[in-house]
Amino acid sequence: MSRVTITTKKAKYVNKFGKLILSDGTILNGEGFGYSTRVFGELVFNTGMVGYTETLSDPSYNGQILTLTYPLIGNYGVPDPSIKDSDGISKFFESDRIQIRGLVVHDLSMVASHWNMSMTLDEWLNKENVPGISGIDTRALTKKLRTSGVMMAALVVSSKEIDDEEIKKQLATTQDYNSEKFMDIVSTTEEQVFGNEKQTVVVIDTGVKNAIIRNIRNMGYKVVKVPWNTPIEKILSHKPKGVVISNGPGNPQNCPETIDAAKSLIEKNIPTLGICLGAQIIGLAGKADTYKLKYGHRGQNKPCINLDDNHVYVTSQNHGYCINPDSLENSDFDLWFTNADDKTVEGIKHKKQKCIAVQFHPEASPGPYDCKFIFEKLKTLMEEDTSAKK
């Protein structure tokens, strides 16, 4: 009987000065870890208990300083980023790098141990030039964000004492998250092909997670990933069986080219699925409106009700914007899913065309397979015999 060797490593990029300064003037002192630098971004929180590797590499977090509410972080380390699946997709990460600007935790584990570990969390952050801070009362911080709403913040990690006033001045002149343009940062700049099957699904990359591509591949389709601003003519040149508009960061109204492509996909009745940011883009393409939530939905435990059968699904989510439910009445969509906690829009279906969208992440599988049927729903739309409109 063979024995499994459990790798154990100690944190080494730790014991630095650390400050988290909020735009409302709050100053939180902690212990810096990871890379020594200063960053500015929107401060948000995630309530997930596991999965920091996937979370930190999720492009939807680009531009944000992330607070993890689970108290102990880093105990199982980080796997090897170079390990790929048969399609060349990273096996354990949602993109090819850390996407957050900074990390806030209560207690960073000084020792990491796991059979699949290649480095510690602080080592990963240092390698990718991302600062982290520990020793923060993340419960109190989360309550503040729930009460006041998400806000801009500065995270500073240094080997020397940190000047509060200098950082405050910089923070006051930093561009607000809502007006930042992220697509040229998170989207592919050229087409990428996964697989060689005859039937193709085009993924419009507005910050796509690797798990979305993997789920489409598992259904038996070739995937062509295209840039966020690809015109409809180029999308149609691939003769897609269907199209997926992906998740991603920022305000959906900053993606006008993607909205235009979505309008054409709806008009031509190409089977289309929108996920997260993609759902908001599809909503805007179908005459609905979007707005910003006070503190967003970020976690693995968000209950959503399927209005088709009244079943509740526990979903994984990561978004700060949402479709306005009041705008659906005069739109091209019917409400499909609603959030059991706050009644926000979690899914829509086009009244006539083959277009569906969900605000949650069906590829994330926190349950572990609660919502993968969304991909099967897309497959059903793609395999129906009714021909697309000309």
Q: Tell me, what is the CATH class of the largest domain?
A: Alpha Beta
What number of structural domains do the residues give?
2
Strand percentage: 25-35%
- What would the principal axes of the Cα set say about the shape? globular
Radius of gyration: 21 Å
Q: Strand order within the widest sheet?
A: 12-14-13-15-16-21-20-19-17-18
Taking all residues together, what is the mean pLDDT? 96
CATH A-level architecture of the largest domain: 3-Layer(aba) Sandwich
The CATH homologous superfamily name of the largest domain equals Class I glutamine amidotransferase (GATase) domain
The computed structural class is alpha/beta
Q: Give the uncertain stretches in residue-range form.
A: 386-390
Distance between the termini: 63 Å
Helix percent band: 10-25%
Total helical elements = 10
Q: How would you sum up the major sheet?
A: 10 strands, mixed
Describe the model.
With 390 residues, the chain is α/β, with parallel strands linked by helices. The chain has two domains: 9-175, 3-Layer(bba) Sandwich (Glucose Oxidase, domain 1), CATH 3.50.30; 183-383, Rossmann fold (3-Layer(aba) Sandwich). 21% of the residues lie in helices and 32% in strands. The protein has ten helices and 21 strands. The protein has helices at 52-56, 121-127, 138-148, 164-172, 183-186, 210-218, 232-236, 256-267, 277-285, 373-383, and strands spanning 7-10, 16-22, 27-34, 38-46, 64-68, 72-73, 102-104, 107-108, 111-114, 131-134, 151-158, 192-194, 200-205, 222-227, 242-245, 272-275, 290-306, 311-323, 333-339, 345-350, 355-358. Strands 12-14-13-15-16-21-20-19-17-18 form a ten-stranded mixed sheet, sandwiched between helices. Strands 2-3-10-7-5-4-11 form a seven-stranded mixed beta barrel. A two-stranded antiparallel ribbon has the order 1-9. A hairpin with a 4-residue loop joins strand 17 and strand 18 (311-323). Helix 8 crosses helix 9. The longest helix is centred in the last third of the chain and has 12 residues, at 256-267. The radius of gyration is 21 Å and the shape is globular. The N and C termini lie far apart (63 Å).
